[in-house]
Amino acid sequence: MTRPRRHRRPPLRRRLAVTASAAVAAVALAVCAGAYAVTVYTLHRQFDLQLTQAATLAIQRDRAGGPGVQAGECRYLAAPACAQLVPESATEDPREGYLLPVGDAVRQVAARRRAPYYSTASVAGRPVRVLTTPAREGLAMQVALRSDGVRRAERQAAGLLAVIGGAGVPVAALLGYWVSRSGLAPVTRLTSTAERITATRDAGLRIELPAVERGREDEITRLAVSFNSMLDALEESLAAQRRLVADASHELRTPLTALRTNAEILLRAERLTERQRERATGALTRQLREVTTLVNDLIDLARDEEPRQSLEPVRPAVLLEHSVAAARDHWPQVDFVLDTDPSAATALAAAVPSRLTRLFSNLLDNAAKFSQPGGRVEVAVHRPADGGRLEVTVRDHGPGIDAADLPHVFDRFYRARTARALPGSGLGLAMARQIAHSHRGELTAHRAPGGGALFRLALPVGAHAEG
Questions:
Q1: In what residue span(s) does the Histidine kinase domain sit (predicted)?
Q2: Is 394 in contact with 379 (CB distance < 8 Å)?
Q3: What contacts 145, CB < 8 A, 6 or more positions away?
Q4: Span 329-342, mean pLDDT?
């Protein structure tokens, strides 16, 4: 069974060219038609004015004349008008007859029962235009002029406008092609760039905008600029993805090697003493925990956003207090000092408790990791005078943050030179900032006065809790 052939639509450029050409051609033909109508109207208007003037002169010249032909030279093109007087009653007609046709309408004008009117007739085989208007009492004046000159002028105007309109159609086609070509030039470049990106998988390609188009703010130029911006974001996302994969591979290599080594040692457990087996088992358990934590952090960070969980009103100060208590158990050699402002103790924030607790724990673990045994970590929470946010600060007295490292402390897997010998994967602060952003907060790092590092979290909060 053969499938019916699908008719492909013509390209957009051709359709736009045809549409623009048709529109311009239609306008050109409409203008020519309008010009012809105006020309014909003007010619007839002027001709009727000549007839009116001729009738006025004939009436003034023949005030005492009777019915009959007054002038009969209108058979010649350059002659004056023909004129004749027609009575109201046919019994008063002259014996010689009339040059122009006389009907009931002419008798009605003579009797003042009808308004003056124009008509057409023929004199000696020549077309004439006739004006019938009242003259003296009981008489109507008929005046005629040859009208073939007007008809010839109409034909000449029609021929000239037809030539102009005919020439306008190919001009319209050229204009339509030019409009489609120039108007769709950015779209053509956008299409070719998209096709090259699809073929080469190179997100570094961009649409080249000429200088004349960079200063314009039309829709197509904005589309090209937006497409370039989208490619910038795509290239940055791909680069971040590659960095994430490379950094994750590097960070996983060491713990996986250690896991393999301890697993191989435990395979020869019969050759080990009880103490050696316990040490190998403990090391394997710790390394499994570290790898699990690292993989979970990688999964969370790879989403580039927090998982959608239901928010609930919580007291950040209470969560911070629990996090400090847990940090004291985990880092017994470090002195954690918590200072909570009474105005901040009851402040409520819309948050996911587990994620906000993770943020506090990461900041506290980072501070403890850089503190010497017996060192002091100062944690404070207070509410500024504006009341719209809560500020949490975590300050340690360790080596601090070098000026060169300060812009990168929240980067994934970034580890300062002083931190490379310490445990950790370099994901804790990146995770903390991501959680802060998901809660519409802001986490910043500073060099503390007198040495050490200072981390400040600004978290939006609502009204105070009751009770």
A1: 247-463
A2: yes
A3: 47, 50, 51, 54, 74, 81, 82, 128, 129
A4: 91
